Amino acid sequence: IQLESELRAATNEGQFVPYYQPKFALDTGMITGFEALVRWQHPTRGLLKPIDFIDAIISHKLSLELFSQMAVQIAEQLTIWQGLGFDQHICINADAAEFSNPDFFDLVSNLLIEHDVAANQLHIEVTESSLIQRHANVKKQLNLLKKLGICLALDDFGTGYASLSYLQEYPFDFIKIDKSFISKITDDRTQRAIVKAILDLAEALDMQVIAEGIENEQQRDLLLSMGCQYGQGYWFGKPMTAEQATQMLTQQH
Ligand code: G
Ligand code: G
Ligand code: NA
Ligand code: MN
């Protein structure tokens, strides 16, 4: 359990760092971008994962501070990669607590201008569960971000409620199939049928699909044969430091 003061210190002293998990084109194996996942470099307890502190961040209303700290580091990373000739995008996670803040859109658009980052280099990933809360501002902010040119992804697809109506209601470019559907895809007909249905739906709606949690080659091969374009998972790469991500990009070029 974190004290609020500990969280504030983390926010003020820049203890939150993005780790980067690569996303791949399933056919070529090339990296198409990275998902940024927050880690807390805690002064005494080591590297902490979101599960250890995200709820506390939300309840202490520090979501926008966390987002802002992540976003600045991500913009700087995009600029570094641009300089090295790596044309990548980075996807940042955000939840309803962030979208519902009226300052969220200005924060994002100012960030792009200040760091001279193209809007299409930044993707934003939203969980289904955060849409369920139906904050009044969420839809408005998502539409503004989309207008700005930012790609939007619906995360953990299939695990929430009323997910089909969300596809119609919000301007998503990508659907991320939750890893719970991928884990048994090679030996469970039902899971396979669900994934197939999601792929068909996405195609009909002109959306692209990213399969999460790919842990072996069999899963990759099957998803590819089913027409899935993009993937993410331990088989391709675990969340890693910026230096490791840069190394991975260097090796592929
Ligand atoms: O790595 P993993 O334990 O890395 O991430 C667990 C969860 O934490 C994911 O579901 C992801 O959506 C969430 N998460 C990761 N980074 C961030 C972040 O920067 N902001 C928010 N709001 N959620 C995040
Ligand atoms: O909610 P979100 O999907 O953003 O969270 C992603 C979470 O899944 C992170 O905690 C990340 O570390 C984890 N993850 C990423 N790839 C894999 C994988 O191949 N297998 C498993 N079990 N977890 C993964
Ligand atoms: Na995510
Ligand atoms: Mn996810």
TrEMBL record:
UniProt signal peptide: none
Ranges where the EAL domain occurs: 1-253
Protein name as annotated: PAS domain S-box-containing protein/diguanylate cyclase (GGDEF)-like protein
Species this chain originates from: Psychrobacter luti
Section of the entire sequence shown: 315 to 567 of 574
